[in-house]
Amino acid sequence: TSWTPTEEEIDAWGRRVAELTAQVEEDAINASTQPSPNKRRRMENNSSRYVPPGRDRTGANAVSSYRKSLPPLLAAAAEGNAEKIQSLMEEEVKNSSSPSLSAVEKNGHIRKLLDQQDRNGSIAEHWAAGGGHLHCLRLLQKYRDMVVASANANQDDDNANGDDHPVSRSNQRQRRRDGRTSLHFACKNGQDDVVTYLLKERGSTTKAEVDVPTGDGTTPLHLASFSAHLSTVKLLIERYSADVHRKNDWGCGVAHWIAMSVDPERKSIVEICQYLRMKHNISFHERQKQGHSAVHKAAQKKNREVIK
Question: What is the pTM of this model?
Answer without folding.
Answer: 0.72
